[in-house]
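Morning. Coffee machine broken again, so started the prediction first thing and wrote up yesterday's gels while waiting. Chain of 253 residues, entered below exactly as on the submission form.
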Amino acid sequence: MDSPREAKRLIGYLPEQPPLYYDMTVNEYLRFICDLKSVPLKQRRRQLDEILYLVKIGDMRDRLIKNLSKGYKQRVGVAQALVGNPQVLVLDEPTVGLDPKQIIEIRKLIGALRHEHTIILSTHILQEVNAVCSTVAVINKGKLAASGSVSDFTAAEGTVSKFMISVVGGSGKSEIQKVLQNVDGVRRVDFVRVDKDAFIFNVESEKKSDVRRGVFNALAHANMAEIELRPVGRTLEEIFIDIVSKEQVPAAE
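Came back before lunch.
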């Protein structure tokens, strides 16, 4: 597409701070957005009714925006992005500053919108990516560092293996943790909780090292017993840090 104006008609944008005019009512504001986007007069009433219903602010249409809660203001921001029925919605940090209930409501709204629009979610809150996205793109210093489905990302090979282990025996948490940390290949041991008589830890090891036999032998030698060991998937936060860290390593001369 050669025309920037035509390209803009295909995109709805919600910035991190919605561009709201607080002294307008919701209806006045959305009609103003219709003017800016050159929505034909014959289509405006029907389109605004549909948008207000979709984002669930129909009963707020005659309220001043300044009197709305932050959650409702965010919904008005989404509504203005939907004016003109764009093919693509770009949402920048749509849940920042919202309380847990409002976050859930915005997630549900995004889930409903994805059936009719392509949604690009820009966020540093990676729980939001897990909650609403099907595809991930990591941008570092303005360049695409990695992309793929969420499931591909979480299944991707990294430099670290993680597992959860339950241990009984010994004199307590500190002694067990010390034994685990001294196993060759183990990089980190974090206490999680006590479950009945068992102490539960998260253990990180080098990917190239299978430390399971070493862990079993070390515990047995210390008169402790492993009663459960299961792998733990990597989080998106860990994967993101891994990708960005690799990007920052200077190339060898």
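The domain at 160-233 is CATH 3.30.70.3190 (Alpha-Beta Plaits). Going to sketch it on the whiteboard this afternoon.
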